[in-house]
Structures
1.
Amino acid sequence: MNYIQLSYGDLVLPALLVVMDGALSIVLRLRLERQLAIAAIRMVLQLVLVGYVLTFLFAAVSPLWTGLAAFIMVLFASQEIVARQKRRLPGIWDYGLGAGCTLLAAGTVTMLALLTELRPDPWYHPRYALPLLGMILGNTMTGISLGLDVLTNSLVRERAAVEACLALGGTRYQALLPVIRDALRSGFMPIINSMAAIGLVSLPGMMTGQILAGVEPVDAVKYQLMIMFLIAGGTGLGTLAAVLGGARLMTDHRHRLRLDRFPEKSI
Amino acid sequence: MLTVRGLKRLHICVSFDLRDGECVALQGPSGVGKTLLLRSIADLDPNEGVVRLDGTLREAVPAPVWRKRVTYVAAQPGWWSDTVQEHFTGWDDALPLVTRLGLPDNCGPWPIQRLSSGERQRLGLVRALMLRSRVLLLDEPTSALDSGSVAAVESLIADRISDGTSVVWSTHDDAQARRVGSSIFVMSADGDIEENRP
């Protein structure tokens, strides 16, 4: 494998393009220059930092450090899920549900891939475990936050229908089933769309990366297919767990709809 | 016999008995808590107090079973499917009641969107009556109806009462309260009820 290495100096010219965006913003009074500058600086710092962290992790190959890195990734993912919700879940579940479900889903499929197909030595080698987890985490997170958002919003909108079913002696699962279905469908849509569009509309980043690094396109495709299958499985598992868990939190043991537990966030 | 002792929900605190085959009219100004009271008896909202049906504690049976026996019917019933008949477990069995309340017998496949509020109210009532509950908690069941339909609903419920069903009937219509209720509970702003025997 051979690939064209970049030095930091090679990045100056492309970075000028961002400066050009900033100049545009000033000239056209878009007032985006501040946000743009902060975002660009954040990106540089975060990525350089991650580069060094990964270098350290790859050298250490320690289950402890790899596990810690994975744990922090899950925390950031659940933070992102919470930020995308219009309503708050009660108590520790606000973070706990998202974190638990991403960990369960992304963790399970990552382990599946590591232990059955990729089989790196050792199986927790961070060069395989962390990129895999990251890609699955990002997509699972999208499915979960969409599913939860649709679940809470539909419950508020469909309150009369849900309570009619409850009042007629329906269990909480019978009453919530139409809403649960909607939430699951929304959670699944992004991965279905991206599977349908992949290769034609979008060339996935990982595959492009492997090709740039000198891997044969057909081999890169195989890797990408595996990742997509893992993502589809992770999204399914995670969205299902989050929506069912959310439905349980929004009702109580007496099969009552408890919207009082879900205050709208004051923004 | 439904017994309610110290039922508390927000400002409401009431106790009363409801015998089999008895109908009580529940009155009081809007916003006083009539709906809250009816919902609480059906255990649709968190509440405190001792509620028994024939001596059996509400908490001793699963909530769905309780609500099949003690059924709350909202003034504006909700709908979870697209067509009328999807809301009934046995649409053919419901047809006699549907026609008795003045609705056409071919309204089964109608989309819910097409129904007027009066049609929705009557169909919501029929849907609840199919459960043959021991106690019916009717929340302004004729608020959207013309006088002919009101009479049909009152006569249908009267039949159920003579079969032994107990009813709490909330209404703003004083004449209706005297017609349907063997006694009248008047709810006041402090959350208590006072009994008026007509």
2.
Amino acid sequence: MNSKFSRRDFLKLMALAPAALAARPLVSALEKARAADAPHILVFVFDAWTAHNLQLHGYPRRTMPNLERFAERCFVYHNHYSTGSFTVPGTASLLTGLYPWTHRAVQLTAGGVAPVHRDHNIFAALAGSHSALGYSQNPYADIFLYQFEKYLDTYLAEGQFNLERRSLSSLPIFKNDAQIAFASFENNIIRNGKGTSGSLFWGMISRLAGLANYAAIRKSHLKQYPTGVPIASGVFLLDDLVDGMTNAIREFDSPTLAYFHVFPPHEPYAPKKEYASLFEDGWVPLEKPTHPLSRARHPWEEIVYNRLRYDQYLAAWDAEFARLLDTLETSGLLDNSIVILTSDHGELFERGEIGHNTFVLSSPVVRVPLLISLPGQSQRTDVHAFTSSVDLLPTIASLVGAPPPAWTEGRLLPGLGGEADPNRAVYSIDAKTASAFSAISQFSISITKQNHRLIHYQYPYYSGFEFYNMEDDPEEMNDLYPSEPALAKQMKDELLQKIEEFNRPYQKK
Amino acid sequence: MFKTIPDFFKRRLPARNETLLVLSLAAFLIFSWSLRTLFYQVPAFILSYNLWEILSIAAYMLAFALLETLLATLFTVILAVILPAVLFRDGFAYKASFALLAAAAISIHLQFVMTNQPKINFLLLELGRGFALWLVPVLLTRYVGFLRKIVLDVLDRLMIFSYLYLPLGIISLLVVIVRLLW
């Protein structure tokens, strides 16, 4: 065949090249035009939002009444688990539909998903039918938006709605090299949080300037935020954040998939004045023993105090976010939008731990809310089956008529094309000390199925199993591992097999 | 006036060989600290970045260190220009060097101990410590002859590091520019 292909044929073929190049965006535009009546897809990810502190899921405090109102027109998933216990793996799974051991973004300083998965993301999956908008207020989630930027029609910088923009790596000059610039500046040269900066002088000057600026902003907003102003990579106000997102949504002129990853209710918990004295009701949460893996070992009083602040912050954020939902409703956008509310991971106020920077994999740090409202939906549907954050991507694709991508490890969510399957195993993993390039040997991992949850800790200084009946004991107080050997062994075998399976490609021959 | 301003600077600028000694010390301090931080972070980086990416991060750090070195030296030169000569320009090599050393010591100390809400008294105390850290060795060097000789000899020998660090910084800066353009 090659011998018949002459120089003249080659030149003719080359003449077609410009037409072929021009056709690609044309085909894409035609596809989008064809899908012009497709609904918008609005994904709102609230960072560090645990399902455990919502009355919707049985919490005694009514932390988010407006959300409850919105839930009356949603599919409410009561047993939804994030794949990871902190932003990097949790967000990567939301965006790729892959488990952390597959996308490999498992470390605190991960530079993104493995190169082989760079085209495996929600924006790529819907590129034919929807324009894409990406915004993350959390720089560690923003990394993935940089990585998937070629699929984004609109990218909003992480400091877009902040009062100050302090991250050097988000400057336009670093646009072509954002991931490495982020790793260099934010994780190394100028660290504004804990730890030493790589820059001997500028690191300290920047930190002092940041603190002085924060103090000034805090002072000027003291009446509004008596316990401190919300801060992500820079200081922001809840009102500005909601207004910014609302304005961005108003500008949609074609079916759009919008991913908004916002910082609240991530710490520091900063409720507005009206909410800063809520829930001082004398209610005391169930005290749980300090976990052997707890590094912080916070005193119980401190844990209770932080939980209270978190609940107040939830209430403040709920009131603010309700403005956006109201705007969607009054403008009629809700009738033409799929609205999804979820989180990248939860938050822990127990067993000696506060927050999510922990190896402890108790349910509150991975069980997150998931609410999905379909266009024009007016009834609430409660789903109690165990579901995973990897399920979101195939479900979204399916809802807009696109085939669920072959590469996703998720399933269609029950009620939205999928069936509840009690035998389905849902996994969560924390492997922040593992390498992206080799077998994962140190981890906290859990498998959840048949109303039971088995947690396996594997570290040089601590290892073991915990086993809970989530229906009878949702607070995970009664470890059944010693007393129910049959079911525990069955789930343990399945979990160990899964670990062996995902580590197999990395085992040394 | 246009003639007098350059003349003013020419008269006030410290001697070139002394400025080079200060530049060398600045490079030694800033690049060494930068490399120390990089090596401290490498165990975390190898978990999620490949070799080329880690080298790129190193390039960013060293390019930034080069700019910081130049700025720190420029800052001492400006001090020499604007302060009375007896305070800073006379004996510029050791006075500016001790200023950089004191600032580095305070910066490192603050990085380890500073909380997110430092009190103004705490910062003033640090400033006082920094001034003392500068003043005492400057007075000793000024009035103890053999000490001055030792200090200047050490500064002279530190020059060797700048032969390594400064070209490394320039190469790194070029690498960063190339990465940003392509």
